[in-house]
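Anyone opening a protein record will find just a pair of labelled lines. A complete record is shown below as an example.
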Amino acid sequence: MNTNNENYKLKSIVPWGRNLDEYKTIFNLSQQDLNSKILGCGDGPSSFNAELTELGGEITSIDPIYEFTKGQLSERIDEVAREVMAMVRENSTSFVWKNIKNPDELESTRMGAMKNFLEDYEQGLKECRYVHEMLPSLSFSDKQFELALCSHFLFLYSEHLDFEFHLNAIMEMLRVAKEVRIFPLMSLENEYSPYLDKVINRLEAKGYVAQIVKTDYEFQQGADEMLVVKDMQKYLEETPIVDYSNKKVYSLAMNLANGCKTDTQITKKCFEYVRDNINHSGDYRDEITTYKASDVLKYKTGWCYAKSHLLAGLLRANGIPTGFCYQRLSCSEYKKDIYCLHGLNSIYLKEFGWYRVDARGNKEGVNAQFNPPHEQLAFKIEEHEFDLPVIYSEPLDEVVCALKKYKNYDEMIENFPDVESQYV
């Protein structure tokens, strides 16, 4: 390993690692995400792999630095740390001290993460958790992973990596994973990457859903967003909850679509059916809690979440991509001083793109309508309330668990599903 070329390559790398908590904030990682099979692209000397593995997670990290030995990386980390921290202290006003409070905490956090990485590195190599590969060409099987993460590489180094590299790298990640998240979207010049819009347009033309999502992490000024990319097919899938092959669900979906000429017309009829013909379990105090689309239709009742499951089933049966959205709202009509999730749908309409609807059911003070491109939901966001920024292809685990566990009205109003801050 001591050739001149190898020494040159080692001197050219700048190893700088982040920990699990940072990854969770950077990528809005939920427990559901952490339980999935993850590929980390360009993880370098982060402790994300080591910490998640210790918690029982299943993760593979790729990076070209994994060709070097523990000793070589340790020596290079020490060299780089002195250089980087001197630069940070000299230019401390150029950074956002929000998640990390000051340069001393930054140094402690980074060195702690890289120490954990080095302690795990040799064992991780043996277990093939650290793999010497690099984008845009990977050896993994199609859809081998559920989630691929790329931290501080794509878009950040737009000056050095051209548009074709970015597109090819993202397409390769989408080949091996069902979902891709990339952070940040800013280049080193603190401006949006010049390739961002073009990449999104090309991805959407290929049938993918590409969303810019706000995160709660910011160190580089203005760099607090990630790109989330999924295959549109995920929003058409049948699942145990969105069970649209159920005879009655499918029959209703076809009947509602009869005579319609566009996806917008079909969506309007399906939306109005669920809004007007399925009881909102809270409004009617129904003593049954449904969660599967087929049961919502069978019993003609459901909380907002369950009604969104039925609407997704009716629309997906008609080939219309439909996802799940959530708001965190006050639950004062049921119980004072608490907040909980409210469930609704986002639907991909050919003429308008993604469009949110709320089929929870109208009543006095609630008037949700279908009038694209204008959005008219059941509730306006008030102080201390917010929209969750992601269009989910499956209902959140927190929602499904609550609907399965709490069987009647009284149990539900005491145990509405809620979320932690990483979803925001």
In short: The mean pLDDT is 93. The CA atoms of residues 281 and 303 lie 5 Å apart. The first strand starts at residue 37 and ends at 41. The chain has two domains: 4-233, 247-423.
